[in-house]
Amino acid sequence: MRYGYQRMYINGQWVDAHGGNTIEVFDPALGSVIATVPQGGEEDIEHAVQAARHCFDSGAWPGRPERERERVLLDIARIIRRERDVLASIEVADSGKPLADALADIDEAAFIFEYYGGWITKLSGEIPPVGPLAMSLVVKEPVGVAGCIVPWNYPFLMAAQKIAPALAAGCTCVLKPAEQTPLTALELPKYLEEAHVPPGAVNIVTGYGEEAGEALVKHPGVDMVSFTGSLTVGRHIQETAARHIKRVTLELGGKSPNIVFADADLDAAVDKACYGVFWNQGEVCSAASRVFVQEPLYQEFVNRVKESLDSVRLGHGANPATTMGPLVSHEQQERVMGHVQAAYADGARCVAKGSLPADPALSQGFFVEPMVFTDVNPSMRIMREEIFGPVMAIMPFQSESEAVALANDTPYGLAAALWTSDIKRALAVARKLRAGTVWINDSQPAPSEAPWGGYKQSGNGRELGRLGLEEFLETKHIYINLDRGE
Ligand code: NAD
């Protein structure tokens, strides 16, 4: 499928980049160009921020009654559900993910608009007690213009995770999609117009991070930055935003642990350990890529994981038989294979698969086989660095305290999984793990009603759930003097 040239969307208009340059977009399973998009830069960001600013400052979006704004978000959700097949097929071609995963992303994105739409008419403030001669009203207000920057692994879902709470809070925004995967975000403006979102409320500028992304973060007209991406870029964004004391929420990388105790349900633990590393080709911030297995179970667990890899089918995401698609780009394929070479150099042993696929039908795409390494130790790069590809490392442990220490031995703290049939142990270990999400007898669920975000260097702030909405809200205290001098 070819999608041709797609314009970006500023102030309710489809526009080209000021400089006239474009970026090629690839189908990563075929290695071929499927679309081009504008290479937005500083002037385009200026235009987009001005539009968002005007829409916010004039009250065109935040000034609309709550129940009207709720209706708009519910309408967007309805349109996304109507267009789910179109959106999912674009997402497959753009990101490489299997169709079933793309459909699940689109459905969740629709739900996120419903979920945050519902909050609009339920948000209220507080009246704290301040004595008989005064009254304090604590009210919630939108932060203003939000700069939203997303990565390529969940292009439409991440865009929804930022735009829906921003609109629900009454903010306006400028979204910069990842340069590798801008296509589904560019479908959104048609739905926004159909749902009567005013011009300027949502602007989408395609472009590179160092150019369009950087200009968005630096712009003094942007009140907050909501960023999902790598630790390196997140750190840079926080430093840049500090100049204007902008609010910054950061959803960054991870190196999540998965602890399997000897009393775990082995079938489920093996199944979800594989899912936890190999779903979405391992391009998942919460991928539970460090698996710690209690000693009596260790060898059997490794054997069972190896066996389960036989059912993995690499291929184009549009093929219903495909269970694992390609990585997003040639650069990502090289990056992952670089981590694999480092694992070999450090003395780790690959016990399952372990290279680029031999099938000539896959040779033009950016595929890598799923891989499992053993004979690892916590100082090896495979145990410390985020790989963002389908690479699992398995290591034995003896005691509960050793497992907790190993799990926490990382600068990241996004998520952690643990498997046991002892509920007291499960809860005790869950409290000791330094991670924003802990899964007990599961791996990877991230329901949009619950908060998502990291401890330590996995980020700041939370996305999703009520807390995700509050990131886009300011708190105002209004004090009323009621003293009548009596
Ligand atoms: P990345 O940091 O390279 O890019 C993310 C986005 O930032 C892209 O849109 C990019 O264009 C933009 N960007 C790059 N440089 C910029 C700059 N100087 N200023 C402003 N914007 C800039 O990350 P990626 O490779 O696209 O995505 C993978 C990373 O995202 C992984 O580390 C992964 O763990 C993380 N991630 C985290 C979560 C989470 O919820 N915590 C979810 C998905 C992905």
Residue runs with pLDDT of under 50 for 5 or more positions: none
Coarse shape: globular
Beta percentage is 15-25%
Q: What can be said about the biggest beta sheet?
A: 7 strands, mixed
Tally of DSSP helical segments: 15
Radius of gyration: 23 Å
Class of secondary structure makeup:
alpha/beta
CA-CA gap between termini: 79 Å
Main sheet strand line-up = 14-15-16-13-12-18-19
Bound molecules: nicotinamide-adenine-dinucleotide
Average the pLDDT over all residues and give the rounded result: 97
User: Helicity level, as a percent range?
Assistant: 25-40%
Question: Assembly type of the shown chains?
Answer: single chain
Could you tell me the number of beta strands? 22
What is the secondary structure topology, with strand pairs?
Elements: E1 4-5, E2 8-10, E3 13-15, E4 22-27, E5 32-38, H1 42-57, H2 66-82, H3 84-95, H4 99-120, E6 134-142, E7 145-149, H5 155-169, E8 172-176, H6 188-194, E9 202-204, H7 209-218, E10 224-228, H8 231-241, E11 247-251, E12 257-260, H9 266-278, E13 290-294, H10 298-308, H11 330-345, E14 349-352, E15 371-374, H12 381-384, E16 391-397, H13 400-408, E17 412-413, E18 415-419, H14 423-432, E19 437-440, E20 455-456, E21 459-460, H15 465-470, E22 473-481
Parallel strand pairs: 1-5, 7-8, 7-10, 8-9, 10-11, 12-13, 12-18, 13-16, 15-16, 18-19
Antiparallel strand pairs: 2-3, 4-5, 6-22, 11-21, 14-15, 17-20
Helix pairs in contact: 1-7, 2-4, 2-6, 3-4, 4-5, 9-10
Bound molecules: nicotinamide-adenine-dinucleotide.
Residues 149-153, 176, 178-179, 208-210, 213-214, 217, 228-230, 233, 236-237, 251-254, 285, 386, 388, 414, 454, 459 line the site of nicotinamide-adenine-dinucleotide.
